[in-house]
Amino acid sequence: MPWILLSLAGLLEVVWAVAMKQSQGFTRMWPTLIMMVGMIGSFWLLALAMRSLPLGTAYTVWTGIGAVGGFMIGIAFLGEPITPLRLLAAGLIVAGILTMKLAS
Q1: I need a surface site. Which of 16, 22, 51, 80 has the fewest CB within 10 A?
Q2: Contact of 32 with 19, CB cutoff 8 Å
Q3: What total of structural domains would you count in the chain?
Q4: How many Å apart are CA 8 and CA 47, to the nearest integer?
Q5: DSSP assignment letter at 28
Q6: Structural domain that includes position 41
Q7: Which residues contact 8 (CB under 8 A, 6 or more apart)?
Q8: What is the end-to-end Cα distance of the chain in Å, rounded?
């Protein structure tokens, strides 16, 4: 169950990061509200997952899901560039997430 909570927390991290981008510096109300709700939900689920998971593992996986998710949304919907080095970096993050999962 803690891994499910952590995965959901990571997905909500992607939601709030994208909403923050869409808020245009907190000048748009709905993206700002979505960001705030996503942030609260993400932190809450992370805290629940940390009841059972080690801090280093939980935090690394949470930020990794957010980083790779944000990277994928940026490419798919925001026109951000796909370069070999960016793909390598994302792949290394995924490898780190999987390694943390296996190590715990």
Answers
A1: 51
A2: yes
A3: 1
A4: 12
A5: S
A6: 2-103
A7: 45
A8: 14
Reduced 3-state DSSP string for 30-85: HHHHHHHHHHHHHHHHHHHHCCCCCHHHHHHHHHHHHHHHHHHHHHHHCCCCCCHH
Contact 57, 96 (CB under 8 A): no
Single-letter residue type at 77? F
Tell me, what DSSP letter sits at residue 25? T
Identity of the amino acid at 66:
G
Model confidence pLDDT, tens digit, residues 24-69: 999 999 999 999 999 999 999 999 999 999 999 999 999 999 999 9
- Beta-carbon count within 10 A of 44 CB: 13
Distances (CA, A) of 66 to 29, 60, 69: 23, 10, 5
CB-CB contact of 6 with 46 (8 Å): yes
pTM here is: 0.89
pLDDT for 77-89, tens place per residue? 999 999 999 999 9
